Amino acid sequence: MTLREEVEEIMSEYKESTGNFWKPTKKDEFIEGLLINKESHVGQNDSNVYYIEQLDGHEVVQLWGTTILDQRMIPVKIGQQVKITYKGLGEKGKGGKQAPHIWKVEYKDPEVDEIFTK
After folding, report:
1. In the chain, where do the E strands start and end?
2. Burial of 81: CB neighbours in 10 Å, binned 0-12, 13-18, 19+
3. What are phi and psi of 61, to 5 degrees?
4. Angle at 109 between CA 105 and CA 114, to 5 degrees
């Protein structure tokens, strides 16, 4: 095997990171996985970004925080399993404010099998 073939074989083991952001559009869409990171004070709106490693395929997906999601994510620790369900838009606020996005957040310690099958 030539050096080039060896390098190509090694490179084929890499997975491409596409920087996917999860942007649900339909009520009851959900994402489930391990919370692997959280960044704060990101972008011009000083937002949170959550990094979820999906249980199926282990792809890392990012999710922008919102006021309601950030409040519901407070008890979730890095390394815990989380299921975030988009519940649609709430009622429009006073003074022409946009309707808030509503989220359901469920979490638990990861199952041992999930940790060791990575």
Report:
1. 30-42, 47-54, 60-64, 81-89, 101-108
2. buried
3. -120, 140
4. 105
What is the C-alpha to C-alpha distance for residues 116 and 60, in angstroms, rounded to an integer?
Answer: 17
CATH annotation of 23-116: 2.40.50
49-80, pLDDT tens digit by residue?
999 999 887 889 999 999 999 999 999 999 99
Phi, psi of 34 (to 5 degrees): -95, 130
Question: Which residues does 22 contact at the CB level (< 8 Å), separation at least 6?
Answer: 31, 52, 61, 62, 63
Instruction: Say what the pTM is.
Output: 0.75
Q: Where are the domains of the chain?
A: 23-116
Residues comprising the chain, all counted: 118
